[in-house]
Q: What sequence folds into this?
């Protein structure tokens, strides 16, 4: 069974930073692209970042609205992906989801970040 | 980037009704269109991928259709457990963009 679990959310002061972690199991993590998607309270879904697999040289992509403040990374040995967010603002308050593949077929339950 | 326009934003229907939700892309997305259901307090769940392929375990009352820029999610006979917000996602180009969502309630 595919499992995705985000951790690292919490209450952060404006200007602060946060590192979210996403631990996965139940599939060959090395083969997949991974994403972070966020959802502000009562709002829709916003793609944040993507990291590709080794075959694509771990290429990374970021939403323009966040570029320069976010860094996505992965550790294939731990089947995990990470999101570092800095210079946090009130509008970064959201649930941050970790998702699998470009087609986003599997999602974690999300990590809540309040700025 | 491709923009997705989803309609309606709110929908009220009766149990047993046929319900349709639409997404229009700003350019051809070659049927790379997924539909998600999000119940209150839960993560989104994929219902349909690549326009019309039903995710394993999803009831057959859910179906998808479309091509080019226009796509539709249909619930053939609305059930009480279908109350949720529904989102589309295009993954043809770039990182993928979501529709704004349709909140479906029971009348």
A:
């Amino acid at each position: 069974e595919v499992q995705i679990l985000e951790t690292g959310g919490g209450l952060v002061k404006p200007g602060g930073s946060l590192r979210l972690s996403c631990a996965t199991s139940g599939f060959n993590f090395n083969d997949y692209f991974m994403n972070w998607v966020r959802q502000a309270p009562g709002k829709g879904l916003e793609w944040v970042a993507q990291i590709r697999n080794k075959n694509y040289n771990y290429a990374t992509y970021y939403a323009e609205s966040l570029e320069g403040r976010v860094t996505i990374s992965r550790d294939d040995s731990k089947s995990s992906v990470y999101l570092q967010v800095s210079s946090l603002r009130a509008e970064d308050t959201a649930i941050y989801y970790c998702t699998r593949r470009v087609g986003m077929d599997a999602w974690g339950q999300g990590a809540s970040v309040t700025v | 980037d491709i923009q997705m326009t989803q309609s309606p934003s709110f929908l009220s229907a009766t149990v047993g009704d046929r319900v349709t939700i639409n997404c229009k892309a700003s350019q051809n997305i070659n049927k790379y269109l997924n539909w998600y259901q999000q119940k209150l307090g839960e993560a989104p769940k994929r219902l349909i991928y690549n326009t019309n392929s039903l995710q394993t375990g999803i009831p057959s009352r859910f179906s998808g259709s479309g091509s080019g820029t226009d796509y539709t999610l249909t619930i053939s006979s609305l059930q009480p457990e279908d109350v949720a917000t529904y989102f589309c996602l295009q993954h043809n180009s770039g990182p993928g963009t979501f529709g704004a969502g349709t909140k479906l309630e029971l009348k």
